[in-house]
Amino acid sequence: CLMLADESDHETLTAILSPLIAEREAMKSSELMLEIGGILRSFKFIFRGTGYDEKLVREVEGLEASGSIFICTLCDATRLEASQNLVFHSITRSHSENLQRYETW
């Protein structure tokens, strides 16, 4: 599943990511019980740092919390550059460059 959204549109991102965040939080507090070789085993979900996690961190805690110096994932403008030029903002990376840079699920 591939979803495209303008990261500057907070309402769209919230609508897209909120259900995912809620589902992830529910998974974190749940246990999977399986019987393996006649022994009941308990498993918990642990999420490690991935590109997807970075997107969730950005949505919940802001871009700076993810450790990024960039204003968004579609352009290479830093925060300083963006603050000096608030009018012109454009996508500077191609789709193939983004596929190389970010993990695809």
Report on the structure:
It is a single chain. By secondary structure, this protein is α+β, with helices and mostly antiparallel strands. It has one domain. It is built from 4 helices and 2 strands, in the order H-E-E-H-H-H. It has helices at 10-28, 51-61, 79-84, 95-101, and strands at residues 31-36, 39-44. It has a two-stranded antiparallel ribbon. The chain is elongated and about 65 Å long. The N and C termini lie close together (7 Å).
Question: What does the radius of gyration come to?
Answer: 18 Å
Structural category: alpha+beta
Helix count, DSSP H or I runs of 4 or more residues: 4
Uncertain runs:
none
Q: What is the percent of helical residues?
A: 40-55%
How big a fraction of the residues is strand?
Answer: 5-15%
Number of strands: 2
Main pleated-sheet profile: 2 strands, antiparallel
Q: Give the CA-CA distance, first to last residue.
A: 7 Å
Q: What would you call the shape?
A: elongated
Domain V(D)J recombination-activating protein 1 ZnC2: 70-105
Protein name: Recombination activating protein 1
Organism: Hyperolius ocellatus (Golden-eyed reed frog)
GO molecular function, one term: double-stranded DNA endonuclease activity
